[in-house]
Design goal:
4 helices, extended
Length: 100
């Protein structure tokens, strides 16, 4: 058994995953910056969307999914958000191509 090949392959794969995580972190940081700029530009929007003026909540605070999400750490939440946004964008672009 050639352990040096396995070690090199594993090390290479770990490096690739680290690079991917760093790229995602950069994208998330850029999104966070954009969100902050939007909050500064339109301060009342967040209050209207998430404030008391909005009577219909999408999720109940007692839902199991909310409880699970609340226990996740920030990097995991950012990754989930990024994946969600990326999927939504892909679906939106795909839908526009099918409609035109």
């Amino acid at each position: 058994v050639n352990y040096s090949y396995n070690t090199a392959a594993i090390t290479s794969e770990i490096k690739e995953h680290e690079d991917t995580v760093q790229e995602l972190q950069l994208k998330i940081d850029l999104i966070e910056n954009d969100l902050e700029q939007l909050r500064k530009k339109f301060p009342s929007i967040e209050e209207k969307v998430f404030g008391e003026e909005s009577s219909d909540q999408v999720f109940s605070e007692d839902e199991p999914s909310i409880e699970i999400i609340s226990k996740l750490q920030a990097p995991v939440l950012r990754s989930l958000l990024w994946n969600f946004l990326e999927l939504h964008y892909t679906l939106e672009v795909s839908q526009r191509h099918h409609c035109s």
